[in-house]
Amino acid sequence: MNGAPPAVVVRDLVKRFGDFVAVDNISLEARPGEIFGFLGPNGAGKSTTIRMLCGLLLPTSGQALVAGLDVAREPERVRQNIGYMSQKFSLYNDLKVIENLRFFAGMYSVPAADLKERIDWAIDMAGLAGREQLLTGTLAAGWKQRLALGCAVLHRPPIVFLDEPTSGVDPISRRLFWELIHRMADDGVTVFVTTHYMDEAEYCNRLVLIDRGRIVASGSPLELKEKSMAGDLLLLECDQVGKALEELQGAPGVTDAAIFGNALHLVVASAQSAIPQVQEFLATRGITVSHIEKIRPSLEDVFVSLTSLNRDRDEGDKGEANRDQGDKRDKGGTKDKGDPTGTAVTDEKKGQP
Amino acid sequence: MNWNRLCAMARKEMIQIRRDARSIGIVIAMPIVMMFAFGYGVSFDTKHIPVYVYDQEKSQQSQDFVKRFQASVYFNVVRTVQSYPELVRAIDRGDCQIGLVVPPDFSSKLLSGQKVSVQAIFDGTDSNSASLGMSYTEAVAQAHSQQLQLAWLRGRGQGQPRLPVSVDARTWFNENLESMVTIVPGVVAMVMAVVGTFLTSLTVAREWERGTMEQLISTPVTPLEIMLGKLAPYVVIGLADTSLCAVMGVWWFGVPFRGHIWVFLLSTLLFLIVVLSLGYFFSVVAKTQLAASQVSLIATFLPAFLLSGFMYPIDQMPAVVRGITHVVPARYYMAILRNVFLKGSPALTMWQDFAGLAIFATVLGLAATRVFRKKLT
């Protein structure tokens, strides 16, 4: 499969909205049958990039080839070859399940001979058997999401773009959804997916981390974990976590500190020398360390260390309104990073009808 | 163009219209309400003008004169007052539009063969009714004078005198000169302007507002298929609505239908293309339902109401305004409809109006096909 031409090629892609640079000179390649993860905080430029790849936005400069076709020059031929699921649910709520499927089958000109089989497949895949006659607006978020995926792939596109497909659905639905993604990839479909859930990033074959429009790292999840951390990572459990974080941010030998759950993660040059140093440093400030050890970094640690997210949280939130226009759903996203399991509780609740 | 996509689009639009209470209301209720509102509410007939009389003499002769007003359908003698200030107050309050003052020497002057003046005061705030009232009053006075003259001549043994010239008036097409008959065909055009433009103005904007547009434009559907698919159901609805109005006009309001049904259908189809394209155009440009519907109301309803010849005859407009009416498509449709309902003259006599409609249908139709871009902004 590696000999096949890449499904998606992006070269020096730039998108500006006025003075604002949403996508700043990114290049990447996705191979056929790959699950390609596009990871980054809200407003990093993920949606803008995916929209350019689908021909929905014109790049300011640079080139994007999808299925070998230039998206700026031949957007219609690109659209024959892709399925797209936008971040916001965008099927017709006032149509029944079966009517939405028939409509999109029509839009993709699914041949009459295939129609029944494809629609049955989509209904089965989405777990909507027996609910064909329900109004789409009355479905729960997880079903809606799977129906949207079903509608987007009725024409068996070789490449699928999914923009934060699982935001706002419950954990079980998310797992089901990722099973579907894996099944598609097994069939040779290239899945280009954006997410800000760390656990989902682990499912990808390849990841690109993007922050403020720029690619900050790329590689397989394993490569990223090994390469991207400068120094060692320490897990620190203590009392007065908040105070400890404040003190440690300026402490000698500590490159970075962040809260993870009830504990702190510290980035240090060398674990061996830093462990006693930190213990002493905190002890002099009246903080008791109950546990400290060197740990293997998770993707989340990589993410936090590579993006400016933890330092400029407020600023990032403000920028988001400008970047992802029309996306009002995922404000809770930046707060999720404190949850080591990656299960974004805040989002889940918001997404429920 | 792909026929399957076009049909899928049209089918989807039809389902959405059917499920949307507001659309159903506009499609069904609007034509009926407008037909009744305009059919009964708008009347250009000036009849039963309220008159107060201050008869200073109260003689047999003066009463005869006043009775002439009472007998006319154009006047309604509401009350007789006893003083001049009372009459002034009545006009001030708007209780009457005409104040008639018969002088105390009315009969004595008449009997002695002198000329007598009756004062008539008109409320000029509505200049149209005032001028109509004035000519009716003069006509009544003239008829009365004529009768007195004839009686006088007969009394002197002159036999039956002849009046040299008389007019034998016949009104064609609207025999009883009822304004309702002229209004109803115009209302049909108004209904089309509103239903057509207003409904289509929502279709594209709604998809942008609800976010469904992003999914739609990620499919291979072409802008032309989107437009034709979205407008097709409204052509059917538009034709049904026009027919509904026509049937109401004929059966309920008693308006004749003297022309050919094909002239009616062809002109309606052309006008539908005009208004649907316009509504679609606004919808694409405005991107929000509120803005699109407001713009379409202002751009079609008002011109159709004021500048199409519906309210005011185009011939009577100042030259500049008359020039503007040429860019109001409803003007041509209105002219054709009046002809089809009332005159029934051959279609060829209306070629200019058909040409006007055809030009607008072509220009706006083409503009609508080009305005939509499959891009987010």
Description:
The complex is a heterodimer of chains A (353) and B (377). In chain A, the strands form three sheets. In chain A, strands 6-7-8-3-9-10 form a six-stranded mixed sheet, with helices on both faces. A four-stranded antiparallel sheet of chain A has the order 2-1-4-5. In chain A, strands 12-13-11-14 form a four-stranded antiparallel sheet, with helices on both faces. Chain A folds into two domains: 8-225, P-loop containing nucleotide triphosphate hydrolases (Rossmann fold), CATH 3.40.50; 230-296, Alpha-Beta Plaits. Chain A contains 13 helices and 14 strands. The relative contact order of chain A is 0.15. Chain A is elongated and about 75 Å long. Chain A is α/β, with parallel strands linked by helices and 353 residues long. Chain B is mainly α and 377 residues long. Chain B has helices spanning 3-19, 21-41, 60-71, 84-93, 106-111, 127-155, 179-210, 212-216, 223-251, 261-286, 289-306, 319-325, 329-343, 351-371; strands at residues 49-55, 75-80, 98-102, 119-122. Chain B has a four-stranded mixed sheet with strand order 2-1-3-4, with helices on both faces. At the A-B interface, helix 2, strand 6, helix 3 and helix 5 of A face helix 1 and helix 8 of B. Chain A: Residues 310-353 are annotated as: Disordered. Chain A: Pfam families: ABC_tran, DrrA1-3_C.
Write the layout of secondary structure elements.
The complex is a heterodimer of chains A (353) and B (377).
Chain A (H helix, E strand, L loop, with lengths): L7 E10 L2 E11 L4 E5 L6 H8 L7 E6 L2 E2 L4 H6 L1 E4 L11 H11 L4 H15 L14 H12 L6 E5 L7 H16 L3 E6 L2 H5 L3 E6 L2 E6 L1 H7 L4 E7 L2 H9 L4 E7 L2 E6 L2 H13 L5 E7 L3 H8 L6 H11 L21 H7 L2
Parallel strand pairs in A: 3-8, 3-9, 6-7, 7-8
Antiparallel strand pairs in A: 1-2, 1-4, 4-5, 9-10, 11-13, 11-14, 12-13
Helix pairs in contact in A: 3-4, 3-5, 4-5
Chain B lengths: L2 H17 L1 H21 L7 E7 L4 H12 L3 E6 L3 H10 L4 E5 L3 H6 L7 E4 L4 H29 L23 H32 L1 H5 L6 H29 L9 H26 L2 H18 L12 H7 L3 H15 L7 H21 L6
Parallel strand pairs in B: 1-2, 1-3
Antiparallel strand pairs in B: 3-4
